[in-house]
Amino acid sequence: MISNFRDLGGLTTDSGRIIPCGMLYRSANLHQALPEELGGISTVIDLRTETERDRMPDRVPDHIAYYTIPIFDEATAGITREMTLSFVPDMVDLYRKMIVSCQSGIQEVLSIIFSHDFASGGVLWHCTAGKDRCGVITAYVLSALGVSKDTIMADYLKSNESCIPEAQEIMSQLTDKKLSEEELKGLWDAFIAKPEYLQSAFNEMHFDENSMFQDSIFALSL
Prior knowledge:
The structure is a single chain. It is built from nine helices and five strands, in the order E-E-E-H-E-H-H-E-H-H-H-H-H-H. By secondary structure, it is α/β, with parallel strands linked by helices. It has one domain: Protein-Tyrosine Phosphatase, Chain A (Alpha-Beta Complex). It has a five-stranded mixed beta sheet, covered by helices on one side. Strand 3, helix 1 and strand 4 form a beta-alpha-beta unit. The longest helix is centred in the C-terminal third of the chain and has 13 residues. The radius of gyration is 17 Å and the shape is globular.
């Protein structure tokens, strides 16, 4: 089963157009993906580091185009969930840095999505939990389609439906670690979605509508 998996179809743009279903997907890793869950998807973009991919390799059918484009390098710990108890990232700053310092990877991902042939099937992008790197790519894609920031934020916060139970499980395993309240709060905050995280990314983003991308999406919904 794929965690934090959803079709972005059904979201409405500021101009009243509805994103068609079956074209744009976001998720957590595909390590335990079932073939039927990827039905109708023709391209998968893995945003994780090489270490993450080796630890939990995606399960993707051969007929699906598969791209590995790390948004961060191996040294960026928190966002890749390779954090230790001695290093918990400042998530607000981390989202800002993602926009400021990782534009090369982001632009490569967006280029693949924006040039995708949606007549061949949908495109899915994912990181480990489907929250941070995946959330930023989703914000760019939805903004290019003319979706409001409020709607983008609401979709982002849906990740807590899976992230909060996961965080609760992780916290329950730390009861014998004798961590301070501050340390526990930092860990909790790193594993969930909070509005101020994505807002930090919004503050650094430049949203430009991509008309060719819009045409490729909405033409198939007519």
